[in-house]
Design goal:
The complex is a heterodimer of chains A (337) and B (322).
Chain A (H helix, E strand, L loop, with lengths): L2 H10 L2 H11 L1 H18 L1 H8 L12 E4 L2 E4 L1 E3 L8 E3 L20 H37 L1 H16 L2 H15 L1 E3 L2 E3 L5 H10 L1 H16 L2 H8 L4 H37 L11 H9 L7 H28 L1 H5 L3
Antiparallel strand pairs in A: 1-2, 3-4, 5-6
Chain B lengths: L1 H27 L6 H6 L5 H10 L6 H14 L13 H36 L5 H14 L2 H13 L22 H35 L2 H8 L4 H28 L3 H9 L4 H10 L3 H29 L7
The chains are: A mainly alpha (337), B mainly alpha (322).
């Protein structure tokens, strides 16, 4: 970029536009968005796949069905031939998209169809709890950073406590208690199978990790001259918060979003793996890994495939997060990041 | 300095007490949750429920139950399990601690080693492909679910290949270091590596960015102008400065390990440590055991946090006045 061009860029474009343009040019952002797009598309069209292509209901056990593979009638579930012969071995991958592409689980359900449906739960919970976490953090971070004093003291102590409470232990404790009976708060009753519970639990446990940096940023912003000028000109607190403070926090929020969504998604699948996240009959990638546990040595695909999807999604989100961070921080490009 | 340490310790105690109250409330005061029903089983009648309430002291007011549990846990140390009546909780915990400590310390050594080595390599290598490759591996590392990675490792080491390449890998489980140091090492090798992958990914990324950042500071330019060699600048200045960030990160990560990823790793590899103990007691609602393990895990976090703060105060006197 020549000097003339760059000076034009500075005067004619807002920082947001500059960042957006460099993000568009970023190869990492393109690749990760493409991968995410494919995964989101497949998850959203899960009913279409299972209805029109696989012709199966991924939530219904099919214990004595048979299918045709290469002209041979094959049962979906077979009595186990290894060990004591007590268990059952589901059909392995047929590599045929119209039935059991990567095999069946121990209840004879099509794993690929379940994977797509599982993606819906995992992505939905990951995104919702990530956004919930961001919203709570923003609220707490701005209020305690802006008003300081005793409000800040109370919020900071609460954050200290959640911070010191190991994330997984807190999430597991809440899940164990809430998932057995649901949560009833007066007129609100959330059933044990409700997605609201894991969303709420995961949304809360990561709040300190985001709220603390936001609070620190607000504290620093508050001392800036433009905020003082607004205070001096008699602007209302709400005006200052929405017009002066919030726009300056948005870049860090943009960096946090992909990371916190990835983190929430990984937490959801871990909880579901421990069977205290998404509850049957619903499926998520974590519950499918759990389903695959018992089949690990006979039909490893059941447990491995969802993990690959989780890893791909999380890696894309993290890669995209890196691209956003670099786009918003021109200094990092100067460093050659 | 003394005032700083005192203040830090009282904050620590405040947080620990709050956590114990929080755990207690989660299990006993969540609206719509009846612990007696959990303990008595699904189809218990009213009489059984009343009996359970009485024998587990669930009919007493909350504050009294809380204080009694804390007294049994910390003062007389004879807290007993809800599930195996009469089984003491503290010995169960102390038996599980060596396995957990072995797991987390070994994994920490591996991830610090990998993280520092590859972090410096990525930040300093002149070959163009090295930095993006290490960065990519780092992203993969932080994106793999640790329990799934453990399953995949088990699939390789315990299934078909167990008869050929991985013949030397023992069955899942844990052997004490005092019983047989060699078997201890063999049993923990794969759990260590599995647990270390995630954090190695994080540390590579953090260290690389820190070094790059320090390298663009003015005093590094001054060093260059004075004619210091690149190696000296990299190790004596950039890496040393960046390691301070790494120390504080390490304190937090290591502290939260016991109640976090170590728990998942222990469950997957069948290591009878604090994490697996917590997991089992969560499944059958054994609150005294949960209380003890959560207190232990939180103590670990709070202690490591405080240690980092004190280390910082030693390194940087300005912090003491804050």
């Amino acid at each position: 970029m020549s000097l003339k061009e760059s000076s034009e860029a500075i005067f004619s474009e807002s920082p947001g536009k500059i960042a957006l343009r460099s993000l568009r040019k970023d190869k990492r952002a393109r690749i990760s968005l493409a991968i995410l797009g494919v995964i989101v598309f497949l998850s959203l069209t899960a009913p279409l796949y299972s209805h029109f292509i696989a012709h199966t209901d991924p939530f219904e056990s099919t214990l004595d069905a048979t299918i045709m593979v290469n002209g041979i009638t094959t049962p979906v579930l077979e009595a186990s031939t290894t060990g004591l012969g007590l268990g059952i071995t589901p059909i392995g991958p047929t590599w045929n998209l119209s039935h059991y592409f990567i095999g069946a689980d121990s209840q004879g359900r099509d794993v690929l169809a379940r994977l797509f449906y599982g993606g819906r739960s995992t992505l939905f919970i990951g995104v919702s709890s990530g956004l919930l976490c961001l919203l709570l953090s923003l609220l707490i971070g701005i209020i305690s950073g802006y008003y300081r004093g005793w409000v800040d003291a109370i919020f900071s102590r609460v954050l200290d406590i959640i911070w010191a409470f190991p994330v997984y232990l807190l999430a597991i404790s809440l899940s164990v208690v809430l998932l057995t009976s649901g949560l009833s708060l007066g007129f609100i009753h959330l059933g044990p199978g409700s997605f609201a519970l894991p969303i709420f639990i995961i949304g809360v446990v990561y709040v300190p990790y985001i709220a603390r940096p936001i609070r620190a940023q607000v504290l620093a912003l508050r001392e800036n001259d433009f905020v003082r000028a607004a205070v001096g000109s008699g602007a209302k607190n709400s005006t200052i918060i929405f017009r002066e403070i919030l726009p300056n926090i948005i870049p860090s929020l943009m960096v946090f979003i992909p990371i916190i969504v990835a983190l929430s998604m990984l937490t959801e699948s871990a909880l579901s793996f421990l069977s205290i996240g998404v509850q049957p009959p619903a499926a998520s990638w974590g519950t499918i890994i759990n389903d695959g546990l018992g089949l690990l040595y006979t039909r490893p695909m059941v447990g491995i495939a969802p993990g690959i999807l989780i890893a791909f999604t999380a890696a894309s989100l993290n890669l995209y997060g890196d691209a956003v961070r670099d786009a918003l921080d021109p200094k990092s490009r100067a460093r050659g990041d | 300095m003394l005032a700083f340490v005192t203040r830090r310790i009282s904050a620590m105690i405040f947080v620990l007490v709050s956590i114990s109250i929080l755990v207690f409330l989660i299990f006993f005061a969540t609206p719509g949750v009846d612990p007696a029903a959990r303990i008595a089983g699904r189809n218990a009648d009213q009489e059984t429920l009343a009996q359970v309430r009485h024998s587990f002291e669930l009919d007493k007011p909350l504050p009294i139950r809380y204080l009694s549990m804390m007294r049994h846990l910390f003062v007389s140390q004879d807290l007993t399990s809800y599930v195996n009546r009469g089984a003491k909780v503290i010995p169960q915990l102390t038996q599980a601690i060596p396995a957990t400590l072995s797991l987390v310390i070994g994994a920490a050594i591996i991830w610090l080693g990998l993280g520092i080595f590859f972090g410096i390599k990525a930040a300093s290598s002149r070959r163009k492909w090295i930095d993006p490759t290490i960065g990519f591996l780092g992203i993969i590392g932080i994106s793999l679910p640790v329990y799934w990675l453990g399953e995949v490792v088990n699939l390789f080491t315990q299934a078909k290949l167990h008869n050929s390449v991985f013949r030397w890998v023992p069955q899942l489980g844990y052997v004490g270091i005092t019983d047989n140091p060699f078997q201890w090492f063999l049993h923990l090798l794969f759990p260590w590596l599995t647990l270390a992958v995630l954090y190695a990914g994080i540390y590579v990324r953090v260290l690389r960015n820190e070094i790059r950042m320090v390298m663009s500071e003015d005093y590094i330019k001054t060093e260059r102008a004075k004619g210091a060699s690149e190696t000296r600048i990299l190790y004596k200045h950039a890496t040393r400065m960046s390691l301070i960030t790494l120390v504080s990160l390490f304190g937090l990560d290591f502290g939260s390990l016991v109640g976090g990823y170590a728990l998942l790793t222990e469950v997957v590899f069948g290591i009878q440590g604090v994490g697996r103990l917590t997991y089992q007691s969560l499944q059958n609602f054994d609150l005294p055991v949960i209380m003890a393990t959560v207190m232990y895990a939180s103590f670990f976090v709070v202690f490591m946090n405080a240690l980092v703060d004190v280390l910082y105060a030693v390194l940087d006197p300005r912090v003491r006045r804050v």
